[in-house]
Amino acid sequence: MRARELRELTDDELLQREKELTDQLFKLRFQHTLGQVENAMKLRNIRRDLARIKTIVKEKEKGRRKD
């Protein structure tokens, strides 16, 4: 998912998406350990999407505070 698309989501949607990706990452890591992952690139893509979401959430929090 592109960062532009993620920025259009609400805070609740971002947090929900983050939770879903965290669960997927856990399951894929477990499968990877057992040698059952068919597409190893999926792990990489999920980690990147998760990082994008976390970055956007932090940006929004920082924008609200305006120290």
Distinctive features:
67 residues; mainly alpha; Helix Hairpins; 81% helix; elongated
How is this structure best described in words?
- By secondary structure, the protein is an all-alpha fold.
- The chain has a single domain (3-60), classed as Helix Hairpins, CATH 1.10.287.
- The chain is 81% helix and 0% strand.
- It contains 3 helices and no strands.
- The chain has helices at 3-7, 11-34, 41-65.
- Helix 2 runs antiparallel to helix 3 (41-65).
- The radius of gyration is 14 Å and the shape is elongated.
- The mean pLDDT is 91.
In short:
By secondary structure, this protein is mainly α. Helix content is 81%, strand content 0%. Helix 2 runs antiparallel to helix 3.
